[in-house]
Structure formats: C-alpha cells, structure tokens
Amino acid sequence: MRTLVFDGRTGAAGDMICAALIAAGADPAVLDPVRDALPVRYEVGETEKNGIRATTVDVLVDRHGAGDADSDHDHAHGHGHTHDHGHDHDHAHSHGDDHSYGHDHDHDHGHETDASRDETHAEGAGVHRSYREVVDLVESMGLPDAVESTALDAFELLGRAEASVHGIDLDETHFHEVGADDAIADVVGAALLLADLDPERVVTTPVAAGGGTVEMSHGTYPVPAPATTEVATRSDFRIVGGPVDRELLTPTGAAILGAVAEGVDAVPDLAVERAGYGAGDADFEPHPNVLRALVGDGGRAESETDRGRTVGGGLVRDDIAVLETNLDDAAPEVLGGLQETLERAGARDVTIVPTTMKKSRPGHLVKVICKPADVEAVAERLARETGTLGVRQSGASHRWIAEREFETATLRVDGADHEVTVKVASTTDGEVYDVSGEYDEAAAVAGATGLPIREVLRRAEAAVRERLADE
C-alpha cells in the first residue's frame, strides 16, 4: 500500500506541508488552478536547516490584484495573535498566518525584490473572507472532486474551530488571516499536491505544537492557541508540547493534516521510496525546523477511522470514552430509539441494562462508547433524549479491537443472486479468527427466498471462508 507519512517534530504550517509534498515528489505544476483563481504566485526554492537540505514554498501576491487587509476589522473581531513559528515580530496577525512561520527571506532561491517586481510576500494579504465566501471561492475553482473535498474539509475544520472558540454558528464565522489569499493558496495547494502524489494512505506522527504563550487581543494564551486546539479536538492525530517555546503548529497546518491524515504513534513499517523536507525559516538549535514527508510501500491500513495503536496480543488499541447514566422513568420507546439517535451524535456502541435503583424501583443503566472528541455531543444528545439530569464519564480510556474488513457473499437461490455482507475479524498480523454475516441483510434474503435466516448466514459465511482460504 502506497503510504505518505508526515513527521512533524517541529510542527507544521500550510507552506511547510506544501513544501514537504513537493520535496517528496509532487509536481508544482499542479498548482495552476490556484494561480488562475487568485492573484498569487508560488515560489519554490531550497534552504538548509541544521545540515538538512529542505524545500521552501513562498506565496507571493500581486499587490495590485490583492485587496487590503482591514486591520481595524481584525482587531474588532479579536484575532490579534500570530502563528509566527519562529521569527520575532509584534504578533499583529490573526489565526492561520502560516507564512509568518519564521520567514526571514534568506533562502538561496534568489527571488526578485519587491522593487524589481510588483509582488509582495503574502502574510495575510488579500481579502479576508467569511466561511461561506471561502467555500464559494473553492467551489468556483473547477478543482477535481477529491481535491475540492479535501480543501473544503480543511476549511470546515477551521470554521468549526473558530465558531467554537467564539461561540457562534459556522455560517457566521468570518475568517481573517485564514480567509486571505495566502491561506487559501496553502490549503488548496496542499490538496492539489497530495492528489498528485496519490497515496492510498496518509498518516502523521504526533505533531509538535511548541510551548510558551502567544499574545492575542483577548490576552495571553498558552500554546497551542485556542483555534489550533479546537482543530486538534476534531482531528485524528495527536499533538505534543515542545521542543521549543514557540508556536509551532498553526491552525491552517493542523486543519490540513486533520483533513487528510490519520494519527499514528510512530513512523509505520515502510519501504521508503522518497523522503522530502519542507522548511520553516527560523532556526531552532539543535532541532531542524522542517516537516518531513516519507513516501513508500507500507503495511495495510486499519479498516476503521477510529484506528488505534497496535500492541502485543494481536488487537488494536482504540482510544475511547465511556458515558453512563441511570434512568428510572424512561419510556420504552425512548430507550428503543437511543441506539439510532446516539449513533448520529457519534456513539460507537450503546448498551441498556435493566437494574434496580433507589427504593427498589426498576430502572435502566445506559452505557455509551464514543470517541473522546465526541463526548460533549453524545452526552448532550443523551441528556436531551432521556431527560437525565447528569451523565458521568467512567474511567475507561481505551478498548482492544480487532482489525475489521467487510466482504460480500453472493448466494444463488432458485436462479437469482442475493448479496450478504460478511464481517471478517482478524489480528494485526492478518490471522482471521471470526467470520460473521450481517443479520439484517441475511433476514432480507431469507424473506425473499424462504430460506431460514441461519441457513442464509451459514452459506454466506462459508462462501467468504472458502474465498479467504484460496487467497
């Protein structure tokens, strides 16, 4: 399986992601749709970080083609901090200023000065847009479906993060630096470059967020800043502090990774074909300020989006949260519908256990398994559906789950073909230990053919076992 691995030991920003993808083999020529839609130009060059040759990407904006950033409007909305990622200035930017990730403009690619061409380094240049305006702009670019979907996923992560931080609805969100031309160029550019590499799987090791504090118009906040933190809660990858007291992970960088990558604890088994480094401009002795990208043939991916860490025993560690509440007055109809309603909120499993409550009254214990990022939504839905006055979170932090794949068994009965989905459970080394047909589909086939449900299940499972034995 062709796998792309991001290794963000000194963080990630939008321009660093683009640079790492180009260094790993993506063709910069695929960035043309962005250049056609925005008054920007990508300048690709090289630099050296602690002895490592790395690729750089700068987004330059035509000063006559870009609108002026409304700084008064920015301050009124309270977006006063910068994601400088390594150079010293007055923290005058807003969320997502990826190009302030230490740009000293000392690269050896020799771009022309502003005096010799009518361009300027982007850093938030151009119109600052609302979330809906950004979506409309991306949809107007004529991008391939997969590229457009990736870019919109990243902007939705950013939009929901901003909405959560400021307590507003998604459609009311107004992007400042994140909605400027350079940030859009980073997000859409990364989506185009990723599509050009065309990996089957994308993963990222834990990403360094940095440390210390960051100044915002609302005050001094610890790193990672609120928007970055909110993006991380909605993403699969993990963040770690350090290795320096600077802000290393920008909201835009986090959103791109959140839209495309699953989190892993370490670089997986990989037959490396290409290795590339995308540079930020600051120097962090002794840490090379680069985002590494590895491309190669790797192991098969886990079959669910809630992938965990593989350990001894042949199962996968899956991080979860367990919510519980006791009910003594819930109607049977409400209890019967909890599985469906809570699943829509993010629950992975719902169990209802009859129990005896105070004064020997009959009641029910409701236990819900969900991902940590979905706890708040699931707890709220549980309270609204049942009227419970409290939901507690138990101490369980993970579970051990099998690798799961789904096969389709085709049964021929009286000259007609019928399909039943069969779930195949295996250990991490590929040893199959259970094959189970999906009951609802088997029941439908049984109703159509007159066969007993258990016979349909037996035939479907036998067909899949036979197929697996032949592989």
TrEMBL record:
Family: Belongs to the LarC family.
One Pfam short name: Ni_insertion
Annotated protein name in UniProt: Putative nickel insertion protein
Compositional bias segments (type: Basic and acidic residues): 64-122
Swiss-Prot/TrEMBL keywords: Lyase, Nickel
InterPro entries: Ni_insertion
Molecular function terms, GO-annotated: lyase activity; nickel cation binding
Nuclease among keywords: no
Source organism: Halorubrum salinarum
Region (Disordered): 64-128
Signal peptide: none
